[in-house]
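Lecture 7 notes: from sequence to structure.

We start with a single chain of 742 residues. Read the sequence below before looking at the structure.
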Amino acid sequence: MKVANVCKSAIGIITLLAFNTAAYAEDYLVDSKKSYLNALKKVAPGDDIVLKNGTYHDFEIKFKAQGSEQEPITLRAQSKGGVILSGQSNLSIAGNHLIVSGLVFKDGYSPSGSVISYRTSKNELANYTRVTEVVIEDYSKPDKFESDYWIALYGKHNRLDSSYLAGKRNRGVTVAVRLDSKDSVENYHKIDNNYFGYRPELGSNGGETLRIGTSHYSLENSFTRVENNVFDRCNGEVEIISVKSGGNVLHGNTFIESRGTLTLRHGNGNTITNNVFLGNGVPNTGGVRVINADQEVANNVFKGLTGYRFGSGFTVMNGVPNSPQNRYHQVKNANIHHNTFIDVSHIQLAAGADEERSAPPVDSVFANNLVIAKTVPTTFSFFDDISGIAFTNNVANYSVESQIEKGFTKRSDIQLSSSNSISLKEMKVGADDSVKPLEKAEVGPSWYQKKEYETPFGSGDEITVEPGVNSLFEAVAKAKDGDVLILNDGVYSEQKIVKITKTLSVKASKNAKVIIRPQRSALFEISDNGSLEIEGITLSGSDAPDAAGNTFIRTKKWGMLTNYRFTMDKVTVTDLDINHSYHFFSAGARSFATLLSITNSQFDTVSGHVLALNKEKDDLGIYNVEVLNLENNTFSDVKGALALIYRGGTDESTFGPKVTIAKNVLTNVGLGKRNKRKASIFLHGVQKTQIKNNEFNASAPVKIEHTVGEPQTSHSGNTFKNTKGIDIVDFLKAKDECRCPE
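Now the structure, written as tokens:
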């Protein structure tokens, strides 16, 4: 009897203790670094550290604690989104069973190598830790080519979910899964329901949005699961996601107008299922690139993808025999089945074949796939022997290439309508009906608005400007992003350099004769966040200072962080000859134009270059312009070159430059003694060039140098009078590195 009573008493005590533990979980409300550190010393499993709403400047948070599976320790905002971490702030986490939620990082950059790190030191890692509903927006280092991660996952069994990551402009992976030690391999991380927003073109390697592993640890398994995320215009480089480890699953993600591919770069045994790739016809949009062994790509939908080569809608690579760990391992046992391809421009097999990458895919299958050409026929391209890929039971609505036609059934009646879905099921081809694109609203924190990052020209107000001294300078200072300045008839004399730090249009009013005459070494300087459109105006250099090296329009001289656009239509440029080397447009080092377009314009008397886009001389694959378009212009008496473009190095992680020069008339262009290239147009390392229907009169020759990738150069319909023509030097074929210019 006494024993029974003792047992009852013990049970009661245990129950009371359990009740009290739950009942006395603490919320520590903190509002400073000091109060945070005091709270951190006291927290126990089940407790919350609550950051009081407000903005915390230069706050480096080290969240090191030990929770339990049933009672994690939480660091959270007082209200979701109510805590802003700005300036040089960051967060590092170590311990077990921790949760971080509701924080916003913006208006600054991390002073360290990451904004959020799942470790506080090399030996202090986070495990069973969740970061949820966190925002990192425009939190980039001011030097575009200084690298960092926004989120670095270490340890094991960690999760990143329901977060918003957008606007990363500097080099470095947005989210990196690190396998640097035995404590971080076979980690079983989960990355789910996040919104990966706009990542602009970096113009260099190092712009991935997500990377899982590195080449050094690529033979290790990560077992990371990437599920139900949206990748919206993630354009940093050719690899949107770079998988560099094994055993990972990427399932149910949606890619929207993202320029690049999900690349199985290193590592074996990865699974790519139920993803949707929506290109909507945007240039350079791609799907999946397959490398290595035992990869499965199944039940995915690829639609409206335009990319080619390493960025194509679907790519199977050639490998390097006995490849070093950091190069290209041969594709073996790839299982590519039950995918749907709709209006995918390019499927490339044995891609990248060259003297080094000479091992074609083997023991692989391309089966039960559906290929539909509604508006764009899919071109299958083969760069080596593809007998190692078995094509079976595939269906297309057109006749595919002869090398694989035995593996396809032609069904021209396929319309992808609901009434047709039964027959597709019966045929057992293509992705099943469960594969649907995610909406942007379904992912990320519901309380944070998704932002548009590129302001369209002409999207703001129209503002009338009268002629006078510095009137343009004053109007630009008052204008808002997207505004259009309408200039009335007269002369605009500018004594100050007009800084462009927003998207602006400068246009002549109807039937007005507008002349702008700068009295400084430049009229416009495009800086961070600036883009400029000019229309219907005369630009005269007659009042410029009598000095060598003036530039009518320039970018910030060094180190722009944001990309820019420059377009010009129906403009007259004259009298840029007050002294030698008066350039029209000069790009600074580390500046990057996503679009530079000049149309229907006239240039007369220029002592320098029209376009100097050749400032990246360190041969790291960096360049100054992505797309250059020159159409229906006249250029007369230009001592320098019409265009100088230089992309050096051998990096293949980017798409450009792309150059179109059409319907222009060049007369006496490029013959000045200071034009060191002795060319009217000089293109080095350009990836896609089209020169057509131009007239060259008494001008220097066009010089094109192929140096990297698989450059495509076409020229037709051009006429040459007293001009040597087009000189193409293919250093790729010559394989003579000593001939490459410095």
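The chain has a mean pLDDT of 92. Keep this in mind for problem set 3.
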